[in-house]
Amino acid sequence: MLDRWLRNETDSELWDILASVALFSAIPYNYPILSALYHGLQGEPAIIGGWLIYGAVFAAMLVVGVRLLNTHIRIRAARFAFASLALFLTSRNLKSALLPDLKSVPVSVGALIGTIGVVLSYYACTRLTSWEFTRVRRAVLLIVFFGVVWPLVQICLSRPIRIQMANVFGKTPTAVLILDEMDSAFGEELKTAANSSRVSISEIAYVDSETVRAIPAMFGAYLGGSSWYCAPITLCGSSSEIFSFSRLAFDQNDDVHITGYWHPYCAASGWESCTQSKFPSTSAVDFAIELFLALPLINRVSAIRDKDVELGRQRASWKYLQEATMTAALRSVFWEIGGVLISHVALPHPPGPAPDSGIAIDYRANVHRASLFVRSVYQKGVQKWGSNFRLVVTSDHPLRRQFWCESTLYRSDPSCHLRTLRPSERSTGRVPWIVMGLPTPVESAPRSNQNIFLPVR
After folding, report:
1. Average pLDDT over residues 46-62
2. Is pLDDT above 80 for 113?
3. How far apart are the C-alpha atoms of 139 and 134, rounded to whole Å?
4. Share in percent of the chain as helix, strand, coil (round to 5)
5. How far apart are CA 341 and CA 175, in angstroms?
6. How many CB atoms lie within 10 A of CB 11?
7. Cα dihedral angle (360, 366, 372, 374), rounded to 10 degrees?
8. What are the residue ranges of helices labelled H in 158-264?
9. How many CA atoms lie within 13 A of 388 on its CB side?
10. Nearest to 351 by CA among 324, 374, 317, 326
11. Nearby residues of 234 by Cβ (< 8 Å), 6 or more positions away
């Protein structure tokens, strides 16, 4: 009888450890794993390999730690690890659901929640019977599994967003350039660089200051004031909207060509050609280290911010991506067969090419590079189709100066601490809408960059 009881308790300890490993591995699922998958920050082998290494290291640490403990408290330790992780995931998911716009929890509130979590975990370890804790463990794992699967079910049940470019641009060969973080103040510079006499320049409002929400809004999916990664290549928003590029369905007769970055454009259907530029991938070990550094406690101790992990890339990586997005646009199949080219380019998005320069210098340099790129695209189109070519230039949002001044790249930039900016550095708070080629009146410009591709549901 005693031997059987010990064997059952050992089995319970093993299941508690395995369940704890599963919960620990679920912590970075929403961020940064889904973020890396969505934005192309890493190659899929590095993401999967890093995730496995991350889970294996924790499993080894947990097994060794539990085995070093006294036999009488070993099971309680395994239970405590599971209960603590379960409460942490629950509190974090509740924050995302109930307070999606809250960027961070104050330290005092976090300490209070942590103390309550420790007390509840201790109660679960000491007061619940083996049978009761087993039921709790199964219920928690089922809830976590449901939370992972439910967004996928929603995407499968949702209707596709059908895009008909012929309703917007007709049959005229048209290139639409989405220049990332281009302020409307530099519209004249783009016009001068293109050297076209048939130009219409307008300033329009932008729907969101974050690219992750601005681009879906262009295709008819408004996510609200905040969003989070809820499934592979899927975003959930505070507006109760759920968006995935797999929902986008282009009309195959429109010959749509897409080049871009930061979004999984190629997951859409109906396009003629598609190229998604990605950051240079690191190794699985490097990505596993990123996962550990992104953990809340380690993140606070090391003073590494989530946005710096993603957006605070080295200048070399961003330069690589900027060149890749321009090259992809100029080499698109669009230039052979026509249709509509939608190109999301990583310019004048900071940082700039020069080392140790300020945000103002970097942005001006990138605007100049973007102007030269616009000229190349326009000249290429005129050489191919003559006066029957149209070029549209717009942006997702203007320069986010405060955002970049808070990043590791520009935190020490003296200009970030100036209360009054020079006129050339002030943002208009709007984005350009520039049409080159075919005569287009100013009145045809949209009011904002939301729904500019006029989705037909």
Report:
1. 86
2. no
3. 9
4. 55, 15, 30
5. 5
6. 11
7. -110
8. 166-169, 187-194, 211-218
9. 8
10. 317
11. 34, 38, 151, 152, 155, 242, 243, 244
- Amino acid at position 112, single letter: L
Q: How far apart are CA 102 and CA 30, in angstroms?
A: 16
Backbone dihedral angles phi then psi of residue 436, each to the nearest 5 degrees: -120, 145
* Average pLDDT of every residue of the chain: 78
What percentage of the chain carries pLDDT values higher than 70?
77
Token pair 């935190």 in the structure block, residue: 411
Nearest by Cα to 128 from 80, 84, 65: 80
Confidence category of residue 309, pLDDT binned at 50, 70, 90 = very low
Q: What is the pTM of this model?
A: 0.82
Q: Which residues, at least 6 apart from 238, have a Cβ–Cβ distance to it below 8 Å?
A: 100, 101, 223, 224, 225, 226, 227
Domains of the chain: 2-157 (no CATH), 161-282+313-456 (3.40.720)
Asked if 21 and 56 touch (Cβ cutoff 8 Å), the reply is no
Question: pLDDT tens for residues 242-261?
Answer: 888 988 899 888 899 999 99
If one compares 377 and 118, the residue with the highest pLDDT of the two is 377
CB 272 within 8 A of CB 333: yes
Residue carrying structure tokens 């004048």: 348
The residue written with tokens 């281009």 in the block is 182
Please list, in sequence order, all residues whose beta carbon lies within 8 angstroms of the beta carbon of residue 71, skipping any fewer than 6 positions away: none
| Rounded Cα distance, 320 and 177, in Å | 19
